[in-house]
Amino acid sequence: MLIRSKRVWVANKFLACIVSVKEDKIEKILPYDADVKVDYDFGNDRVVPGFIDVHTHGAVKYDTLDADEQGLKRWAKYLPSEGVVAFLPTTVTQTEEVLVKASKSVANVVRENDYEGARILGINFEGPFLDVAYKGAQPEQCIVKPDIEQFYRFQEAADGLIKIITMSLNKDEDYKMTRELASQDIIVSIGHGGTTYEEAILGFANGARLMTHTFNGMTGLHQRMPGQVGASMRVRDEFAEIICDGIHIHPDVMNTYFKSKGPDYAVMVSDSISAKAVDPNDEFYLGGERVYIHPDGSARRANGGLSGSTAKIIQGLKTCVVDAEIPFSYAINSCTINPARLLRIDDRKGKIKANYDADLVVIDDNYEIVKTMVLGKFLYSRD
User: Fold this and answer.
1) CA–CA dist 365, 303 (Å, integer)
2) pLDDT value at 287 more than 90
3) How far apart, in Å, are the Cα atoms of 267 and each of 54, 274, 340?
4) What is the pLDDT averaged over residues 277-294?
5) Which pLDDT does position 317 carry in this prediction?
6) Which whole number is the average pLDDT over 222-231?
7) Largest CA distance in the chain
8) Of 125, 146, 139, whose CA–CA distance to 210 is shortest?
9) Which residue out of 66, 271, 357, 359 is catalytically annotated?
């Protein structure tokens, strides 16, 4: 299959060229004026790598904790409509029984591999090893101290699919669990905790590699107490999630943060819940608590506190570039190559490059999805 556009994102710039796709891989990149018959000519529409969402709880009335395999498949099938080609179903804090059941459900779908849509790359565990004082929407009664044996029970149920876990490092004595998980190549993400600046720096030094939805559910930035936000901004070569819906973080703060992290370490996430892409007047829950969808699209608990989002990654890209005035290279990297680098799959995903997976998104100048290709197949078309 030959795909031509005047704007293809290759080598960190837009280039007029032809992308040759063979089966599920990008075979080669040809000159724009090559003497070949193309299958698709997208004119001036932009062709970019497929988006990867590493922190998303659900959509289309499905939540990871539902442990409903058909619901998970429905979610995966939906995601290419917003440009997402791969994702990590994400839990929230709950009882061990609920988390084990959810983990087994995701593992069964991955093992059987009979689903269509965005590919499941693993599981993201948000909790239960958090700090009650910074719990956000996490159910307090289910928060527990770091317990490596309990984690391994979760991992066994998940068939080894847990790739990321959020922990409050001020609760991890001597960073023992952080070091243990890092030695197993499991990404420890600092979040939902009262972790100080100094504790966060030591957390990175002991193996943590990520910050969970930076600015939300953590100690904030103060001129004399930098907190977790300050640690994330200061340690520029460690990854950090950021919700780019313009609600969780003001666009001007997003601009400052992206400039601090540079083009290679910010990771855009949706943090979406089951309310995404369905009637906002329906009844929704996260972690057992009722969530209400407001006219601005925000998901909030009865007390007004934010509780996940209904954000789409393509909307986040637009907010970054248009509202926050972030350079396009920074913004597109945050939802393509940066999450791939975080997961250490950047040798096959996150770029439009020969021998990489044929994961492509075509977007117009209004940031609307025209087409999405997952592993060489167009799984979403606007028309």
Assistant:
1) 38
2) no
3) 8, 21, 10
4) 92
5) 98
6) 94
7) 65
8) 125
9) 271
Element at 22 (helix H, strand E): strand 13-22
252 given a catalytic annotation = no
Annotated binding site for substrate: 137, 216-217, 224, 248, 306-308
Separation of alpha carbons 52 and 349, rounded Å: 9
List, as one string, the DSSP characters of 313-379: HHHHHHIIIIIS---HHHHHHHTTHHHHHHTT-TTTSSS--TTSB--EEEE-TTS-EEEEEETTEEE
User: For residue range 146-185, what is the model confidence (pLDDT) as tens digits?
Assistant: 999 999 999 999 999 999 999 999 999 999 999 999 999 9
Domains, the chain, with CATH or none:
2-47+363-381 (no CATH), 50-348 (3.20.20.140)
Tokens of 23: 């089966």
Q: What is the pLDDT of residue 166?
A: 97
Q: Indicate the burial class of 86 (C-beta count within 10 angstroms; 0-12, 13-18, 19 or more).
A: buried
Considering the chain, what is the average pLDDT of its residues?
96
